[in-house]
Design goal:
With 400 residues, this protein is an alpha/beta fold. The chain has 15 helices and 15 strands. A seven-stranded mixed beta sheet has the order 2-10-9-8-7-3-4, with helices on both faces. A four-stranded antiparallel beta sheet has the order 11-12-15-14. Strands 1-13 form a two-stranded parallel sheet. The structure holds glutamine (GLN).
Length: 400
């Protein structure tokens, strides 16, 4: 029988509403139109050669077979020390830290390990696009509350803040997990110490766990301190902390991250992890363990990225794009609805398509971070780029 004529059996989609992630779509569109890609978040500059040398050394030393399921010990011990020195919380590297294939796998595995049918998971939109599908695959119900958009008299979004009333209304006996993200993708908003106190009060007397996505922990500006969930003793006891070496060391393609959580949570996490990825590539873990010992490699990141942020913002200052504050992350959000062109009326997705294909600069629509079509007239640029790349993009954006 002709193979082409044999239909595959049909089956109900597990994720009927999900298409291809916006980051992949926009990167493909940027490549097709040779646009400068300020869409998907990744650096266009190389990582430190010392890190590559450390991985090479590990490979040549024959660290090429399966590592321990939970990750290479040297790396877990290094992470434990790093968290203790930065956030004053000790995670036992044997029972409380697991190496993952990037932040996204850590997030899905954490969700699969604790969320089941009937459980509610609270997310705060705009939210990273993997949260909701991961909850759905676990059989859980997503309860989305929206960040409060603070607007000026003309209705332009000026900044975002945490929607405490909506959050406290959303928490109930069915709440299994609350997902937070600081510094926040895409808005750049960061949580303050008082916010963690408030979250702790809200979670008190409930059985809710917390997943804190902190992959941008080292991209925080103007002298602010990252407020890790691990720095709050009450919250650390009920939280999965997610971070990623891809963001910190400019190696997003390596896909290595980690999850730190109290032993009881980690036990359940590892039950899923071992059948999800089993282990993460060995030489990268040895290389990272070596490189992690030098604290300067991550301590210099705020000033390194702050300079890029300020350069990019200064270049947009004279345009009709309205800049939102960027206290953290490597993303700059702008409101485009004030531009003196007909395209200023387009929805965010269409505006980003136009910007990519006609202006030659790719960006990400904030609407992609919401389940319902929300139009705030805000788009996201990634400034983790060489100065030359930013300069070329600015030249194009200044001509609109
Ligand atoms: N976290 C990155 C971003 O927001 C993208 C990750 C991905 O492409 N899955 O741009």
């Amino acid at each position: 029988m002709d193979q082409a004529l044999t239909p595959s059996p049909s089956f109900p989609s597990r994720l009927p509403k999900v298409g291809t992630t916006v980051f992949t779509v926009m990167s493909a569109l940027a490549a097709k139109h040779q646009a400068i890609n300020l869409g998907q978040g990744f650096p266009d500059f190389p990582c430190n050669r010392e890190l590559i040398a450390a991985v090479n050394t590990a490979m040549l030393a024959d660290h090429n077979q399966y590592p321990p399921m939970v990750g290479v010990a040297e790396l877990r011990y290094g992470i434990s020390e790093k968290i203790a020195s930065l956030y004053r919380h000790h995670y036992n590297p044997e029972s409380e830290i697991t190496i993952t294939a990037g932040g996204t796998q850590g997030i899905m595995t954490a969700i699969l390990s604790c969320v089941g049918p009937g459980d509610e998971v609270i997310i705060i939109e705009p939210a990273y696009d993997s949260y909701r599908p991961s909850i759905e695959l676990a059989g859980g119900k997503t309860i989305a509350v929206s960040l409060t958009a603070n607007r000026d008299e003309q209705g332009h979004v000026q900044s975002y803040s945490i929607p405490w009333d909506a959050l406290s209304n959303a928490v109930n006996v069915k709440t299994r997990l609350i997902i937070i993200n600081t510094p926040h993708n895409p808005t750049g908003m960061v949580w303050q110490a008082a916010d963690l106190d408030r979250l702790a009060k809200l979670a008190n007397d409930t059985n809710a766990l917390i997943l804190s996505d902190e992959v941008y922990e080292h991209m925080i500006y103007d002298g602010r301190q990252h407020q890790s969930i691990s720095s709050h003793p009450g919250l650390a006891a009920r939280s999965f902390l997610i971070s990623s070496f891809g963001k910190t060391y400019h190696v997003t393609g390596w896909k290595v991250g980690y999850v730190a959580a109290p032993a009881a949570l980690t036990t359940e996490f590892r039950k899923v992890h071992q059948f999800n990825v089993f282990t993460v590539n060995t030489p990268m873990q040895y290389g990272l363990a070596n490189y992690l010992q030098e604290a300067a490699h991550y301590l210099e990141l705020p000033s390194f990225y702050q300079q890029k942020r300020d350069y990019f913002r200064a270049g947009l200052e004279g345009t009709k794009f309205k800049l939102l504050p960027t206290p953290g992350t490597y993303f700059q959000c702008v409101d485009y609805t004030n531009l003196n062109i007909p395209q200023a009326q387009l929805n965010e997705a269409d505006f980003c398509t136009w910007l990519t294909t006609e202006v030659g600069v790719a960006a990400i629509p904030i609407s992609a971070f919401y389940n319902e079509p929300v139009q705030s007239g805000v788009i996201r640029f990634c400034f983790a780029k060489k100065e030359q790349t930013l300069s070329n993009a600015l030249t194009r954006l200044q001509q609109i």
